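hey so u asked for the seq, here:
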Amino acid sequence: MFLHIEQLPAKPGSVLMREDFDLLQAAERGDLPPTLRFYEWEEPTISLGFHQDASVLDDERISHAKQMWVRRPTGGAAVMHSQELTYSIILSGCTGQGDGSLVQQFVSEAIAKGLQRIGVAAEADARGEPMTALPNRISCFVRTSRWEVTAYSKKIVGSAQRRLTNAILQHGSILVGNDHLRIVDFLLMRNEPDREKLRNKLAEKATSASEQLGRVVSPGELRVPIAEAFTEVFSRFPIATARLTEDR
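ran it, structure tokens below
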């Protein structure tokens, strides 16, 4: 499969999420070649999953900090988008849960290979439950589904999907720093001990490229090696969505 790859500048979260969904709809109509996007967020922004109740957020803390938040067109739980490189892949010809699992597997293999190229001991972890089998818990990085990318059993990429009849969108956060922990500051908790317990659990379950390498890693450092790995891995992707590009 040939992937059309876009390296985008930082934009507001609302724009990025609208663009991802618009591209998914274009793929559903058959008007979009297989597309891979890389982007960053203009300012630290919380995103909630499409079906996640906004009551998980602490309105008072959100208002006081003037913290931006958006709703993703995909499922999953809350994420703080900061110190990360976000990827987004949109494919037509993917028609069911089996195809969705296959996309997740290939995406994770590509990201793991790209991270390995800068020295991160990343792997596409085949253990755990399918993405669709896990409940929408309060924060994305507290649990790992099958085929997510880990480093020494700690989650380094959080992903979510949205499937239409004939197309799929998968996007996710590739962590380069530890700002994902800041999500805890804006969640509605019963008390402060519970907040710190969740913060510690997130630190235990997730990691970042900078933490793994013991140096500061920028999002820009990941763009080329991961894009190259996507090109290699998706050259053997079995679903015939490539015809969209070849026919043009």
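The chain has seven helices and eleven strands. Residues 4-243 form a domain with the BirA Bifunctional Protein; domain 2 fold (CATH 3.30.930.10).
lmk if thats what u needed
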